[in-house]
Specification:
The radius of gyration is 23 Å and the shape is globular. It is built from 13 helices and 15 strands. The strands form five sheets. Strands 1-2-3-5-4 form a five-stranded antiparallel β-sheet, sandwiched between helices. It has a three-stranded antiparallel β-sheet with strand order 6-8-9. It has helices at 2-8, 48-53, 59-72, 102-106, 119-135, 174-178, 185-188, 193-204, 210-213, 216-229, 231-237, 263-276, 319-332; strands spanning 16-20, 24-29, 38-43, 80-86, 89-95, 100-101, 137-138, 147-150, 157-160, 167-168, 245-250, 253-258, 282-287, 291-298, 301-308. The relative contact order is 0.08. The longest helix is centred in the middle third of the chain and has 17 residues, at 119-135. With 343 residues, the protein is α+β, with helices and mostly antiparallel strands.
């Protein structure tokens, strides 16, 4: 049934688009009689260079081979079903992995969830990452969104997704190994020192350089260096409609809302209460010739609204723009700071 649906193109009739950007589309297909859904990833060419590269290699085939190799090495991953080349791109079909995105579980809406502190989750996760380290997995773009977690069992079960560019090696450098779990830094820094050290030791267990691999200061330095290198691209995406923030227009003006879109209604409520000067919910914190700052209590929590009275001037030096970008940049470097959800 799966083979017929893929080869004939019938999978596209009932497919639901679940993700789309300039490089790929991802479709979910529920086939009759199949317990798990089918996911088809379509790679899209981005310019002439991608068209030229597609003549010598197919991204879909490379990811298909990587999934098969990682599974053979004992690391749970999505089951690859098939691949096909197309003009400038290709298609990859995999079986659906039950569960949810690890990033959504630990950081819903960009905020660390209480479940993240539970050893019930962290110890099995450390063992899963240890299998990746010992298998010699080299992943160029590892992050929490590439791991699915299923909570239906007594202990959580993890599986890898998005393995394009992944290779297996007998010997990996310390940096290549740390790239498999450096993204845990924001989570680990919230844990007591003893728990943090125990989890790092479990991730590095059995490695020939385990003591160096489990170094917390080195992980923090790697995190800051990699995040700083990506800031230029993130800065551009924070100034318009992108995967980092959503651009919305309402009677008040144009808004950029970062993180969870569900927060938009709470932000609008906070602004409405601020403009109405609701004395029961608005507490004025600062009021001078430059800005007015107030704490607003909404139905869903507390927000601080900062109003710039003389923000006109050169676009690059507007204080509201600088506040929006600088807050995001500091948070990228894993420094504890209040989240700025909208500008």
């Amino acid at each position: 049934l799966v083979r017929t649906s893929l080869v004939s193109g019938q999978w596209h009739r009932g497919a639901v688009l679940v993700k789309e950007n300039r490089r790929r589309r991802v479709f979910r297909c529920d086939l009759p009689g199949e317990a798990r859904p089918l996911y088809v990833k379509q790679d899209l060419p981005c310019g002439l260079f991608d068209w030229l590269k597609s003549r010598f290699r197919c991204r879909a085939r490379q990811e298909f081979d990587a999934l098969a190799a990682v599974r053979a090495a004992g690391v749970a991953a999505a089951y690859p079903l098939g691949w096909a080349a197309s003009a400038g791109g290709g298609f990859l079909a995999t079986e659906g992995v039950p569960g949810q995105d690890l990033g959504d579980l630990f950081w819903p809406g960009g905020v660390l969830s209480p479940e993240a502190h539970s050893l019930r989750f962290l110890v099995p996760l450390a063992r899963f990452l240890n299998r990746m380290v010992r298998a010699g997995v080299a992943h160029p773009d590892m992050h929490a969104g590439n791991i699915m977690v299923s909570l239906d069992q007594e202990a959580p079960r993890f599986a890898l997704l998005d393995l394009y560019g992944v290779t297996l090696h007998r010997q990996l450098s310390l940096t290549a190994k740390r790239l498999l779990f450096f993204w845990l830094v924001p989570l680990l820094e919230e844990l007591p020192q003893g728990q943090r050290e125990t989890l790092l030791e479990q991730i590095a267990e059995g490695d020939q350089s385990a003591s160096s691999l489990a170094s917390w200061p080195e992980m923090v330095r790697l995190w800051a260096r990699l995040r700083a290198a990506k800031w230029r691209g993130w800065k551009r995406r924070l100034l318009g409609q992108s995967s980092l923030c959503e651009r919305t227009v309402d009677p008040v003006g144009v808004w950029l809302v970062a993180g969870d879109p569900a927060r938009r209604q709470a932000i609008r409520q906070a602004l409405a209460l601020y403009l109405a000067r609701d004395s029961g919910r608005v507490a004025l914190l600062k009021d001078d010739h430059k800005r007015r700052v107030a704490r607003v209590q909404t139905d869903g929590g507390s927000y601080v609204v900062k109003e710039y009275r003389h923000a006109a001037g050169h676009w690059h030096w507007r204080p509201d723009r600088l506040g929006w970008l600088n807050t995001a940049r500091i948070r990228c470097l894993s420094v504890r700071i209040a989240i700025c959800p909208a500008w």
